[in-house]
Amino acid sequence: RRERQRFVDKNGRCNVQHGNLGGESSRYLSDLFTTLVDLKWRWNLLIFLLTYTVAWLVMASMWWGIAYLRGDLHRAHDGTYSPCVANVYNFPSAFLFFIETEATIGYGHRYITERCPEGIVLFLFQSLLGSIVDAFLIGCMFIKMSQPKKRAETLMFSHAAVVSQRDGKLCLMFRVGNLRNSHMVSAQIRCKLIKSRQTPEGEFLPLDQCELDVGFGTGADQLFLVSPLTICHEINSKSPFFCLSQRSLRSEQFEIVVILEGIVETTGMTCQARTSYTEDEVLWGHRFLPVMSLEDGFFRVDYSQFHATFEVPTPPYSVKE
């Protein structure tokens, strides 16, 4: 079957782009901090470098401008003259003085004198502006580096979902696992069925979202994810798959979006991992291979069999039939 467009990729990326925002695009500037954090790393680094470069050049130009207006540039080597900033006689020296002041290096060769009120005001302005720029940009980079998006890459989902019987009931199942030894605290899983439908009033809903019950009433959606778990959705009269059979599965067109959320134990930040299963990734009459084995004093997980399935006898009829 030709691969069709997915709503959510297997790696969790949502294939949704916002266009024709018009005047609403100004909302991104009103929340500038979040906008910068959401940008890709190459744009963040470019903005980081450009902001500091422009700020440094502007402030160095202001120090050079004060020295130029006071005539310090022409009398810098006059031992009897008291300049605004000692040993500032051109733009490179003004730039070096700004860097020494901003980075609190203080080599001692260039220093501001008390006979320069405009220099004192500029010094205070530079200190205030530098603190604001550092707090904004460094805070932005820190938040971006500490985002738990990479943690989601060590959360695994099986490549396919299966339909088979469990405890005498027809169930839709898939497998989740955690590759790290650190746990996901308060891990919870949810499933959404994305399918087009038409209402009795004639309204067409192209991407209608329907909740799949994976144990809300029994608490089975709250996971203790220390070893791979098989998530089960019981197909009953309340399930949207009530009329699904092995034959109708070949002609259906739907997508199951799986969302796993939890708190990263090491950082305390909330992490979300996503994946999806289309109708051609649902295997009727299959079951997952066991991956747990008892070793000498511990349980071993064999992740080489994490995605493996095998066929089991399963009636080809729907629950309704």
Report on this structure.
This protein has 6 helices and 14 strands. Helix 2 (32-38) crosses helix 5, helix 3 crosses helix 4 (91-102) and helix 3 packs antiparallel against helix 5. Strands 1, 2, 3, 7 and 10 form a 5-stranded mixed β-sheet that branches. Strands 4, 5, 6, 8 and 9 form a 5-stranded antiparallel β-sheet that branches. A two-stranded antiparallel ribbon has the order 11-14. The mean pLDDT is 87. The chain has 2 domains: 24-146, Helix Hairpins (Orthogonal Bundle), CATH 1.10.287; 150-311, Sandwich (Immunoglobulin-like), CATH 2.60.40. A hairpin with a 2-residue loop joins strand 2 and strand 3 (169-178). The chain is α+β, with helices and mostly antiparallel strands. The protein has helices spanning 26-30, 32-38, 41-70, 91-102, 117-145, 246-249, and strands at 155-157, 161-166, 169-178, 184-198, 204-212, 222-223, 229-234, 255-264, 270-278, 282-284, 286-288, 292-294, 299-301, 309-311. It starts with 25 loop residues before the first helix and ends in a 10-residue tail after the last strand. It is found in: Membrane. Residues 155-320 form the Inward rectifier potassium channel C-terminal domain. It is a multi-pass membrane protein.
